[in-house]
Amino acid sequence: MEDSMKTKSFKESEEVGLRRGPWTLEEDTLLTNYILHNGEGRWNLVAKSAGLKRNGKSCRLRWLNYLKPDIRRGNLTPQEQLLILELHSKWGNRWSKIAQYLPGRTDNEIKNYWRTRVQKQARQLNIESNSDKFFDAVRSFWVPRLIEKMEQNSFTNCCPQNNNNKSRLPPQSYDSTSTQTYTDISSQNPGLSNIDGSSSSSTFMPDLTTVPYFIDPNTIIDGSMCNQEGNYQELGGYIPEMEEYYYMGNSDIGTECHVAEAYEDVTQDPMWNVDDIWQFRE
DNA sequence: AAAACAGGCAACCGCTGGCCC
DNA sequence: TGGGCCAGCGGTTGCCTGTTT
């Protein structure tokens, strides 16, 4: 970005007395209270009416990315990461479109995740993050590990008797040449067809009948989740085009619901081991 | 203990398209 | 039809914080 343009914008903001930079608690409160009482409406009007010295754009961004009550914060779950990988393979950098499939997550958050985590992994392999080679690497190594994490988390967090049992499932070894199959989510969700309208043939998604989606990190239990009242509910995701949630059925969970105390932060894990890196660097 | 560095993320920017007059 | 306004989008920047030296 040219400095001259930046300077111009900055001066323009200053000339009309608009604030920039990080939001204060007071500003957050003003904006939140105003929107809760009056709705979103026109953002420039919102900014003025709420008594904020911000432009409408800034208010909109702050509300949508931070203040909105249904925003989910915290690390992305393996399920969400899988979905992002899948959807990005279909749509590329269409962050807002991808965000529609991750309730409570913002396009900004997903974009940041991609740029900081995914592109970092690509750099480790010394390949372009949008290249076929990188997608191959993701399919062969990253996805299986995410699934492994999901299974481990599910196992760790389920069933009280298991929590007392120090043994763990043996780590599954995923061979990149294995015939493990992944079912295209688009075959079950019309809204997820490829951009060109075809059904996907090279997607990352595991079989939906075995993998839970949109697990709340704080309420995982054996492939299901507890609502705030502690009641069990099955996992699902929101399909914007159909304006409905889909659910992962066939769960033979008991009715007792236990909230997991901790959730392993899989986003910090390196997705490749040394062998993987050598294989893709040759 | 302090400086340097790196990573994460909130916030900004310009561009685009839709709507209205 | 064209100009102005606005919302939404994706790209980029820069600050803050944690880690390393």
UniProtKB/TrEMBL annotation:
Composition bias type Low complexity, residue spans: 172-188
Positions of the UniProt region annotated as Disordered: 157-192
Domain HTH myb-type: 15-67, 68-122
InterPro entries reported for this sequence: EOBI/EOBII-like_plant, Homeodomain-like_sf, Myb_dom, SANT/Myb
Organism: Brassica campestris (Field mustard)
Keyword tRNA-binding carried by entry: no
Transmembrane segments: none
Pfam families to which the protein is assigned, alphabetical: Myb_DNA-binding
Name of this chain's protein: Uncharacterized protein
